Amino acid sequence: MIKRKCTHAGSWYSGHGATLSKELDEWLEKVPDNIKDVGTLPQPDARAIIAPHAGYAYSGPAAAWAYKSLDLSKAKRVFVLGPSHHFYLPDCALSQCTHYSTPLGDLLVDTKTVAELHKTGKFGKMSKSVDEDEHSLEMHLPYIFKVLSKNFQPNELPLLVPILVGSTNPAKEREYGDILAPYLEDESNVFVVSSDFCHWGLRFSYTYYLPAANSAPGDGVNLRSRDKPTGAAIYDSIDRIDHLAISSIESGSHDTFINNLQGTGNTICGRHPIAIVMCALENLKRALKLNSLTTDFKFIRYERSSQCKEVSDSSVSYASAFARVDCEDVAAQFDEDMRTKR
């Protein structure tokens, strides 16, 4: 047994199990049971989510919206894709651990699926130290444990498949999307994509500014420390930069998302995990002729850590989304249509 310690407990979130459990319950309870233009939560067949990974004091409430949307009724394993913040990776890496600890209890790794992915030759392996240094995967574990515990007995919790995603290029993202698409098609698999959105401010080396509400993605300027913009408020510009990215993700087009990032340079730290899962969804749409309304991400929450008014200010954005992936019914209908045509 190789157990990954919950190294960020006690600093990024509470290391006291009872306190943490209460916080998670409160954040989940504050999310409405019914959302306008979406419907009731959890959403049927919502098997993929995007949620933030900052300290829970900042992103915990926003992440609850994604986790309350998640349909776990048929789950047997949970894939978690998070960006590598501290260790350079040109591709993706798998965990060598068998257990992931949380203050609420341990989650078991699906070592069989990890071995299957490794056999493709496209995944490396991360060391235990790299695994424990990275926060993008760990910050989702308490939420995953909490929502699984609400749906399964303690000895029947679905297994975990952690994937650390490096600085993949678009071609590699499509390649990983092809590999993961069959897993996403399987109704017993759930996908969690870990990402914060815009990191704005001099300390992030990102001060891109769109001067008007109708500014195109590439029409902005990089503000300098002495600049005092006279157009839109900086926080409104950040809002537009993020919502341009959100719209590109909701389009379901990997190319559209990449073009958006190239236009604004938005510092979405989980852009590569998002892109990989978008590619997997596109793969399923092509293969099974799925409806975009069934498979594209729908964003239901957007927040920021603060309101930037001066160039010296900074903020991080948090967004939550889900995608409904109902391949079984659509594939069955497709098979029936094909039989009818014969």
Which terms would index this structure?
342 residues; alpha/beta; 9-stranded mixed beta sheet; 3-stranded mixed beta sheet; 20% strand; disordered C terminus
Overview of the structural elements:
The protein is an alpha/beta fold and 342 residues long. The chain contains eleven helices and 16 strands. Strands 4, 5, 6, 9, 10, 11, 12, 15 and 16 form a nine-stranded mixed β-sheet that branches. α6 packs across α9 (271-288) and α7 runs antiparallel to α8 (254-264). The chain is globular and about 60 Å long. Residues 330-342 have low confidence and may be disordered.
Write the layout of secondary structure elements.
Elements: E1 3-4, H1 17-30, E2 34-35, E3 39-40, E4 46-51, H2 56-69, E5 77-83, E6 92-94, E7 99-102, E8 105-108, H3 111-119, E9 123-125, H4 128-133, H5 141-149, E10 159-165, H6 170-185, E11 189-194, E12 199-200, E13 208-209, E14 221-222, H7 234-250, H8 254-264, H9 271-288, H10 292-295, E15 298-304, E16 315-324, H11 327-341
Parallel strand pairs: 1-7, 4-11, 5-10, 5-11, 6-9
Antiparallel strand pairs: 2-3, 4-16, 6-10, 7-8, 12-16, 13-14, 15-16
Helix pairs in contact: 1-2, 6-9, 7-8
